[in-house]
Amino acid sequence: MNEKDIRFKNIIMAFCPPIIYLFITMFVEVVADIIIFVRQAKSTSNSNGFISSYKFMDNITNNLDKYSYLITFISATIAIFIFGYYYFRHKNTYEAYKLSKVFTSLKVNDYFNLVIIGAIGSVGLSRFVSMLPLDNIIGNYENTSNALLSGNIILQIVSLGIVVPIAEELIYRGLLFNGLTKVIDAKYAIFVASLVFGVFHYNLLQGTYTFLLSLILICVYMRYKCILAPIIIHACANIVAVISSYFGISSFLNRNIWIYLLIMVVELVIGVISFEVIMKEDLK
Question: Which end of the chain is least crowded, N or C, by CB within 10 Å?
Fold first, then answer.
């Protein structure tokens, strides 16, 4: 196999994980569609009443929105098993996934700074992006957010705050980014991997936020050479988003633009300081 063929193979292998994850999610959604359709049809027939086709489809859509986080949880869980198996088959290739490295690369102060970046800095970044006039251009962030951040808060935290970050970090920062570094310079790989991560979030506003967040996650990943580091940031960011939505914190802050801006600036400053500490820290 010549160098050109090897390069092409590496590109395909790099992009396979996110594409496979997309198809897994689509498959789970189709199965959920079928189950909800059948249940809705049975419910309609048992009621012995007339229901319009519009109302019928509206009920199906509402049920899909209601179980969006569960669909996401199932998709991410399947992805973890698939790509976890792939890792164990190629564990010598992915040094950053080795358990010995996961539990020895990070010190107590590292965990602290990673949590601060995820729980505070990323929230400030999200607030900043939400102020940009990007919503409804491609997709609708509010509809997507409301669908995901609804239902039992414990299940949301487990799904969006634990399972999804693990799956997405394995796929986008681990397999995609690592794969791209085999064929292009690291700085270009950072941009491409982050762009793909943003595009796969389906709307411009959320895609912009996840693109910027991915730049941070990859920098941290490269700094520690440990997949656990970006997982912690990603998990904390999602957990805070779930809690904020559940208790209406974001809605409360939106009532006063000056308080919103002040909190956003404070969050961004704290996040930047923690990021600077991490990037300048002596890891020896």
Answer: C
Write down the domain spans for the chain. Answer: 3-280
CA-CA distance, 210 to 217, in Å (whole number)? Answer: 10
pTM given for the model: 0.86
Classify residue 91 by its DSSP letter: T
pLDDT of 38: 79
189 CB-near residues (< 8 Å, 6+ apart):
177, 180, 181
Phi, psi (5° rounding) for residue 150? -140, 155
* DSSP assigned state of 227: T
Residue 98 buriedness (CB in 10 A; 0-12 / 13-18 / 19+): middle
Question: CA-CA distance, 229 to 92, in Å (whole number)?
Answer: 20
Sequence-distant (6+) residues with CB within 8 A of 230 are 169, 173, 217, 218, 220, 221
